[in-house]
């Protein structure tokens, strides 16, 4: 099988990640619960992973790296923990439901009001819109780093400059970019960065987290056992404990730890270049096939995603044919990005997404090109 | 090292669990995200795990089995998702902070009022208190199945009869019992059962969940990507999607799946008998050592936990000595169970907990007995 659904989850994990999970499953206690050797070993590897992530993302405080089950949880914690009644929030048409639904919920509850930076039919935003939507009560900009549907990257550093100028919080969904495109919270003026482990970071599912700039206050989301201050009625205030009730996924985090080492060794620029070469080869070939419509902006920075349709064919039917007749795994349908589909005009048809990873090959790309050519005929 | 901290997390996982995680790390796509073979394989193993858990816990609907990162998350979802302003809730002194803190939070927010069934100095509850605390606005009883500190089991079936008679919800924290003591939601009248994977179920960290009786309504906690109904502003209503935003920990759940098969094969009665034999051997030996105080009720059903102190010695010092001088891993301190310590009179001293698992041996118990005897001298 040729797996080209890496924007949903990277199927292939480096062997060192698998080895680290196995090692943890054989030896790891419960971090922060007790001081026996197994518990301390778990605490050490978890803290070391915080340090690696902090350095990787330019977060000044390793203890402000909070682990979650995935980026959806990180976004829920961030978006339900920072706003106050009356706040206005700016976000974009490019967002995934993991951003949209937490925001809609607070809009419906009457806590916040929302404005959307529109996307054009190529999925692009106009950076002036971020500024023109600012109101006196605007508190934050919430923005994906790259669309999961088009692969278009938003220039977060540019958005960060606007956020800083108007003293707004910048909350970034890095689900599609962490591990693939460099992120520096300090340089980009990001206040809260939410990421997942199982995509570009090539770590196990069930891992992810958020990096919080020093001084940014987020209210607890889950509360419960913390291993410290057991007699308080409240979750302890210091990060990361404030946002990490319950036993962490230590086994998964051990895998994330190994994944971070792997990324350090290989270098994410090397990874991104290879992914982009595969993506470009595919894009250049399929864009000229009669009947094929490719979505997104290929003249600006992007991730290794090519999303397309063939004539008016239902995207699920195309994706199914790719799987059944060519053993090529893609994703079709709505991609949890409703406003993006509205911008692209693909609400009814959906779209077929090809997403490439470090572990794909040129031969796989060539097979995918042949398949699209045949299906389009 | 002799690992006797299994109530915090079971260190030793069955080999089939490790193998299943490795297999998943090599082959698993993103469940419910697309229809390619890898995604479908993930969906199948996850649904099959729901079925196994539903059968194991006597939950009539596999689609009412919701996966979470741990029991703390399950309890947060349950306890923040069922109450309405003005509700009165009965809970017990035996609870862990994963129950207490979500309840305290809602008490402080003015949503609910709380009453506690007291525990006596042996950590026992009086079942009549559940009934005598009921008020006209009582909505639920929230109750642990077994204390993480004393190992005392609460007769949930008996509490369930009271809950049913007064039409109250019964929400049970099975963190210490799932996989060790039989649970039948139907027979015990449990409405919401919260469990973790990494303790008695011998599954990876980062797994856990809740089983919901048909007809019980819980509001969404996290919201976001669901893979279905992408154009709705709200999280989809059907369980389990209602409570499962974001990518599940498929790799961990694959391990949980294997763990459920292991438990089926070995039989949890067999496991419990062995654990209880180890625990009893330890208890009978240490209880007679001068200076040793053992906490809890050993004349009623219980888990394989023995918690003790030596004279007035600080529990952390004893636990450290066990680790350093005898390579025995235990847990000391407050155990996230503040009201239980108050009942036992161990707020200052804490207590040293020995918790036994299926993978411990008689020789390990004998070494632990020798260690306590020497430390007490």
> What structural class do the secondary elements of chain A suggest?
alpha/beta
Output the helix-strand order of chain A: EHHEHEHEHEHEHEEHHEEHEHEH
Largest sheet of chain A: 7 strands, mixed
Computed over alpha carbons, the radius of gyration of chain A is: 21 Å
Unreliable residue runs of chain A: none
Largest interface: A-B, 84 and 84 residues
Widest beta sheet: strand line-up of chain A: 2-8-7-6-5-3-4
- The fraction of residues assigned to DSSP E strands of chain A is 5-15%
Note the overall shape of chain A. globular
End-to-end Cα distance of chain A? 23 Å
Percent range for helical residues of chain A?
25-40%
Strand segment tally of chain A: 12
Overall average pLDDT of chain A: 96
- Tally of alpha and pi helices of chain A: 12
Oligomer designation: homodimer
Condensed summary:
Chain A has 377 residues and is α/β, with parallel strands linked by helices. Chain A contains twelve helices and twelve strands.
What does it look like?
- 2 copies of one chain form a homodimer.
- By secondary structure, chain A is α/β, with parallel strands linked by helices.
- Helix content of chain A is 39%, strand content 15%.
- Chain A is built from 12 helices and 12 strands.
- Chain A has helices at residues 15-27, 37-57, 71-81, 97-108, 127-132, 156-165, 185-188, 250-266, 268-286, 315-326, 338-344, 362-376; strands spanning 2-3, 65-68, 87-92, 112-117, 138-144, 169-173, 192-196, 208-212, 292-295, 305-310, 328-329, 352-355.
- In chain A, the strands form 3 sheets. Chain A has a 7-stranded mixed beta sheet, with helices on both faces.
- In chain A, helix 7 (185-188) links the parallel strand 6 (169-173) and strand 7.
- In chain A, helix 3 (71-81) runs parallel beside helix 4 (97-108).
- The longest helix of chain A has 21 residues, at 37-57.
- Chain A is globular and about 70 Å long.
- The model of chain A has no long low-confidence stretch (mean pLDDT 96).
- Chains A and B meet through helix 1, helix 2, helix 3, helix 4 and helix 8 of A and helix 1, helix 2, helix 3, helix 4 and helix 8 of B.
């Amino acid at each position: 099988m040729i797996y080209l659904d890496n924007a949903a989850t990277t199927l292939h994990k480096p062997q060192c990640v698998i080895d680290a999970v196995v090692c943890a499953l054989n030896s790891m206690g419960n971090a922060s619960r007790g001081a026996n050797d197994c518990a301390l070993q778990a605490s050490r590897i978890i803290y070391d992973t915080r340090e690696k992530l902090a350095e990787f993302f330019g977060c000044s405080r390793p203890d402000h790296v909070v682990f979650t089950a995935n980026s959806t949880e990180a976004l829920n914690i961030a978006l339900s923990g920072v706003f106050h009644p009356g706040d206005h929030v700016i976000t974009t048409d490019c967002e995934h439901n993991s951003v949209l639904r937490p925001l809609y919920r607070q809009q419906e509850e009457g806590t916040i009001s929302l404005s959307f930076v529109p996307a054009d039919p190529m999925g692009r935003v106009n950076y002036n819109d971020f500024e023109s939507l600012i109101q006196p009560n605007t508190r934050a900009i919430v923005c994906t780093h790259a669309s999961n549907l088009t692969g278009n990257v938003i220039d977060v550093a540019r958005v960060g400059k606007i956020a800083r100028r108007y003293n707004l919080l910048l909350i970034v969904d890095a689900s599609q970019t962490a591990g693939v495109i460099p992120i520096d919270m300090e340089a980009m003026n990001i206040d809260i960065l939410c990421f997942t482990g199982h995509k570009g970071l090539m770590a196990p599912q069930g891992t992810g987290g958020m990096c919080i700039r020093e001084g940014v206050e987020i209210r607890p989301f889950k509360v419960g056992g913390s291993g410290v201050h057991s007699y308080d009625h409240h979750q302890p205030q210091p990060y990361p404990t404030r946002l990490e009730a319950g036993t962490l996924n230590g086994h998964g985090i051990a895998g994330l730890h190994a994944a971070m080492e792997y990324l350090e060794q290989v270098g994410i620029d090397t990874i991104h270049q290879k992914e982009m070469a595969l993506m470009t080869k595919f894009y250049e070939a399929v864009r000229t096939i009669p009947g094929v419509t490719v979505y997104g902006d290929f003249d600006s920075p992007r991730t290794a995603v090519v999303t397309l349709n063939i004539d008016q064919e239902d995207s699920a039917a195309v994706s199914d044919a790719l799987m059944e007749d060519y053993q090529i795994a893609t994703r079709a349908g709505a991609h949890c990005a409703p406003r993006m589909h509205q911008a692209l005009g693909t609400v009814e048809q959906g779209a077929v997404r090809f997403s490439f990873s470090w572990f794909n090959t040129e031969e796989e790309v060539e097979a995918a090109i042949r398949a699209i050519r045949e299906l389009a005929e």
